[in-house]
Amino acid sequence: MTILHRETAPTTERARNAGPTAAPPPATAPGRAPDDVRARIERAKHAFSTRAVGAHLRRAGSVGLLTGDHVPRAGEVVLARVTKVGHHKRLESPVSRRQILFPGDEIVVAYGSRYAADQFLAMVPGDLGPAHLAAAGGLASRVLEQHSAVGSPTEIEPIGVIRDEHGPVTLARAASHQVQRPVSALADRPGRRVPVLAVLGTSMNSGKSTVLAHLAHGLAAAGLRVAAGKATGTGAGNDVGLFLDAGAHRVLDFTDFGHPSTFQLDVEEVRDLFLSMADELAGGAARPDVVLLEIADGVYQGETARLLADPEVGAVVDRVVFAAGDALGAVGGVGALTNLGRAPSVVSGVVTSSPLATAEARRALDVPVVSTFDLTDAEVARGLVEDLLEERAGDAS
């Protein structure tokens, strides 16, 4: 059972290590040239979530820092100082290298909220006071609750929100792709021309990313071009690299569309993000044969539940692949998805690591239960989409 406990008031030692509670002073000291701020930002350790920001700042006419009473918003990019290393001891770089953190390091991360049942519940703070590194991919936030097995979060002191001549620099402004609003549900949209499979699961660590990667590998082995994406969650590069290594020829995630995380986005934003990603992956000159999209966390998580219930998303998703942690989770998840009108076509994930749990799930379900590793088999993988490929081929003729 997942146990959460609310963070208690800091101890005297922790309070000393956390630094002052007041907003930090401006980073540009008297007599220092403005270009020194740009150089300071370049010297800092940059996070995966901010990988598009460096190029954006190099094009900017001026670069500075917003301090004092500025109220941060999700997606704004902040220069911060590590004051105490805790749970996250490394910061994932723009190329997914794990950069070891030391007290005093200056880092470039993005404000955002996080929902992670086995780690932290964290929210964007209402001021530039002390905060936390809530995710290794580069999320500045303030932790409210945490799993009992997780250590205290790494503490950071915001130096200032990075600005250019147009105002605060945000991931959305620097992003390589933009969410299209409103997103049309017309039948000729790219996401309707290619089979789209959604991969979701019972919870974090149920095997979703591993299932998607193995399925991508199997489809590629069958001679199909696969595009993959991560539509919701908290920004990190591990899964992007995993999908590419598995054989996907193109991979995107929500940070490519300017979101450090998708927690607390409203239903329309999550829907439009999902559909924009499906269209971007399905379209273009390098049109794939199949698109695989992972939806983070569990069926009952807010963004996941809203996506599954949305009719426009339902019109694009052709098939659901469900990852479960155990047999009971598989049965409950299949029932919940069926009630939402999104009954999965196959169950896989961590449950299939155990022959006994796999047998239990097969006895209890009418849905096929396929070992994660069997998904790498070209015949097995292609069999999951063969009818969809034939259907699309018939529509095109």
Rg value: 22 Å
Q: Calculate the terminal CA-CA distance, rounded to whole Å.
A: 52 Å
Strand order of the biggest β-sheet: 16-15-17-14-18-19
Assign an overall shape.
Answer: globular
Number of domains: 2
Describe the structure.
The protein is of the alpha/beta class and 397 residues long. It has two domains: 4-174, no CATH class; 190-396, P-loop containing nucleotide triphosphate hydrolases (Rossmann fold). It has 14 helices and 19 strands. The strands form three sheets. A six-stranded parallel beta sheet has the order 16-15-17-14-18-19, sandwiched between helices. The protein has a five-stranded mixed β-barrel with strand order 4-7-11-10-12. Strands 5-6 form a two-stranded antiparallel sheet. The relative contact order is 0.13. The model is unreliable at 1-33 (pLDDT under 50).
